[in-house]
Design a protein that fits this description.
five-stranded mixed sheet; seven-stranded mixed sheet; BirA Bifunctional Protein, domain 2; about 20% helix; globular; Alpha-Beta Plaits; single chain; about 575 residues; 3 domains; BMT5-like; alpha+beta; 10 helices
Length: about 575
Amino acid sequence: LTRDPVARENLRYLRERGIDVRFGVDCTQLTDVFELHDREFNQIYFNFPHCGRKAGVAKNRELLAKFFQSCADVLAEEGEVHVALCRGQGGTPADKPQREWHNSWQVVAMAALGGLILSDVYPFSCKAVPGYKCTGYRSQDKSFHVEGALNHVFTRSLPFEVSQPRIFRIKVGNQWFSFPEPEALVGKLNRGFLEAPSCHPIKTINEKLIAELGKAFPLKRLECSFPLLPQEDASVLPFWNCDFLSAAFWISLHEDNSNSESLTGGTSQDVEDFLVSFSELSLPKNPGRDGKEEACEGTYGQAKVCLRPSLLVHVQDVIEVPDFLSGSLHILSGPVFQKCHILPFTMPAFHETLFILGFNQNLKDGCLQSLLDHLKGILDSLLTQTLLESSKLSSLVEFVLQSNGKDYMICVKTHNFSPDCTEDLIIGSVTTSATSVIHKDQCFVFVSMNLDLLAMLVWCISDWRMLWTFDNRFLKNFVPGKIEPFKSHSLYPPCYVHDISFWIDEKKGFDELEFHTVARAVSQDTVISIQFLSRFQHPKTQQVSLCYRLTYQTCDKALTQQQVASMQSQFRKEIQQRLYVIPR
């Protein structure tokens, strides 16, 4: 460099300002270059990395992978790694045009190996640094094209650890019981999104909804119990049917007199205690695979109960109280849990708010229409706040009358939010079928709303899993009093595809819902799609084989190909044990 006058001037300029300039730095071994006290960099820049000469994509991927892994050892907790790449090299949708994944440097997948996620990407500009030149074409002092080049900004991901289900203890009367968190719901019980200190968008949207309805109706907010144990008697709950129960998460309660510290051999942080507000459990019956009810074995020593699949299970308790206020909106809000297929807008855990309105039978049509009109106006107002002016319609919400002629589904025209959405999204329901033994002269309307789906639409959050992230950067997007489109801290996470085929026993049947639930549990919610590919019947043995395609992708963490391969291997073992299939 001493022969280059520009380099000499740059060195002089930097050193006069106290800058430490190092030479011969191996970007894949940064810990060898810097002492321990110097390994807390706020920013690391690598402009246009390349192995030199005619190195192919495989060698340059390897360079990036080792560089990112090396950065993880010297980067501050909230530090950034900036990598500039030429047009198309990164392989993300930010590249215009985007290269095929196998022909790119797969920068987000390589960064994941170092526990890093892509948090920002913007055009690289030489003009931003006066005098900057891009040289090094084929390891020579020649310039190369930087038109369309992008600067990729990476940050640390939360560690992708194997989460162990927590143990919950509940006190019923004077007796303690314990149960493990269902594997498919790890990290989703007792998050407190709706509680007083929370600033989560789900609480924000719920409070806005309630406040606006409060301008038209008197309100009475009811306390929602811990989401366990709906009442046993199905006859008083017209909403409670076999389909509803078969989608519930069933758990076993164990009598437990131990100290918190001794449970599962862990500390008290592994255990969460709750006082249940009723003194006696009414244990529901467990539906079998054929829909027939099976009586629960045992009493308090060990019994099967289920997590609440909907707030509608509490309806009868609310309307049967003697002091129920006719004309007032009674409000229940809380988390609910249902087994479901893996689809973009279906979720095993979400927050529901339930509005219960009772009125004299002679006023039924007028009261119902008034409630629907107010609700439609509130939802339309909320949903249009983040839409571009050109996308706004006079109404986004539609109440679709059901076949019984009295109930409605609350639908939203989602194509205004995303071109990928071709169908209307159901965010709630309106039911008018319940009657009260005590208040025989009254009619009742129940409006159920999925707050998670509503929050996704209002803030343009594309992935429901983001609502459950433990990353603190998520909540920083939400400014009190303002509704602005959500900007994710993890952009273009890599996808990994695996196929699986297996023989089934047609006599026992194949439970596809349980297949999806096992995939959700084993992958820690990283499977975003399960696609049925084919059915094959062996011509000689007549055995039937099914083939599915699983797509893995996270929304907030670094996920590597090796981690996915391990999950897929575990998934093969789990379906063999739980679903009695034979993987091929």
